[in-house]
Amino acid sequence: MYKSFAEVKTALASGSSVLEIVESYLTKINQHAHLNAYLEVFEQSAKENALRVDEKIKKGTAGRLAGMVIGLKDNLAYKNHKVSAASKILEGFESIYTATAVQRLIDEDAIIIGRLNCDEFAMGSSNENSAFGPVKNHLNTNCVPGGSSGGSAVATGANLCTASLGSDTGGSIRQPASFTGTYGLKPTYGRISRYGLIAYASSFDQIGPITNTLEDAALLLEIMAGDDEYDATVSSKKVANYSAFDTVKPLRIAVISEALYAEGIDPEVSAKMEAVIASLKKAGNTVENVSFPYMDFIVPTYYVLSTAEASSNLSRFDGVHFGHRSQNAQGVEATYKKSRSEGFGPEVQRRIMAGTFVLSHGYYDAYYTKGQKVRRILQNKTNAIFKQFDLILLPTTPSTAFELNAVKDPINMYLQDIFTVHANLTGNPAISLPLGRHSNGMPFGVQVMANHFDEKQLFNFSHYLENL
Amino acid sequence: MKITEETVDHIAHLARLEFIGDKKQAIQQDMEMILTFMEKLNEVDTEAIEPLIFMNTEVNKLREDIAIETISQEEGLRNAPKKDSDYFRIPKVLDK
Fold first, then answer.
1. Do B12 and A353 touch (CB under 8 A)?
2. For this structure, is A172 an active site residue?
3. Which value does ipTM take for this structure?
4. Domain segments of chain B: what residues?
5. pLDDT tens sequence across A111-131
């Protein structure tokens, strides 16, 4: 069992081959099939690539990720392999190119071992919206793993890969990381190219790693980040050496009081936050409560804008050039309507309908433009906090993982993202650190948010915090 | 926001989706619930606030317009639900 890349490297140094490491992961994946984390295991290509990397190791030409075994959320393209966004509408679809983020890992000799279950089109907070069944939390199989990158979080947490990639539109990396005791990073908007990521809401989506160590998250970001001619929204800002953690001098840390004392937050989550604050203060940092009086508007703003963008992005699934085509339709318009209604699941249809409404004639200004204005206020207010403080500290989730089928009402499900959506609305980087352990036995995360493109500080501080 | 059956039909048509029977009632209720939730934003004073449209602050990057073949015709057709040797096949547009 290899929990981290450090353990993989130790095994390689003591004579194990990459093929042996891949085979041990394959065995473990088979033993944990009941978790439903993998939608498909790329056994053949993983073994072939392992042999290739073993050859490179012998010749001394192996890349920085030689021996790391990575699972991909089922919305990332990997050439000549299937990708479905956990949707029936893309069942059987095969990628004809590889996502930039994935290619950069392959270029450093990482092995891609399979595609991981998620909520359909990354829409959900419990992984119960997958067309291929829910993922179970490996720490308690009655509980959800969180979503939408639930398969990625469980595969990493249960050691069915060394690390995984997810995507985070409203918390879809950090919330499942909190529920599974793993590290989950959402980088700054534009830090990693999204070429080859199946789009959900393009002004929010970011790819990021889910790992068992902070070192692995930093290393993966370092390798994936940076300019890419295939994504016009990616930043050309220099990529720092995130994986070399520097010592931090005393920092100024803001705590959002409305989050810490939010209604419905589990008292053990608040207590952990208070304990973290106390130890930070004791170590000489400045920690102050700040007011962010927009907590109640965060999730509604997110749903106005993300559903609008989803309705536009998902219009490409029409049953003509790829994907499911209804056998029950006659004529072009009926083909569109029936293919889409048969292919998309209920939550995806709900969001397309809400998004189409907010963009429709007569309602555009009242909903969509209004949402964009509130987003500006949220960003201004957050930027103002970062003028006075280096970092913001808040919980990742209000509670630990809930039981399967426990949250039935869509609005209640949307509110699961209350602490994570903030960073997506404002574009800031944020990480969930697995520092909390509840008396019910389940983990929960502590979330740190940094200024735009300040991932270096985010990692330095996270390293400091977990060793405090 | 009260959503009528006509609104559901209109939006469903714009979204190229169809809801029949129970499903129409269910989506009508869900839309009312979701839109009411979104209307919370009316409590925020946005007078004189510019909408935030672009999340990246960098200027457009221009490149030379060079023709390169990134995907072959065969690859382009690979995932088509219906095709012949050179083309996507679509349902009949005109019925005789």
1. yes
2. yes
3. 0.95
4. 5-42
5. 999 999 999 999 999 999 999
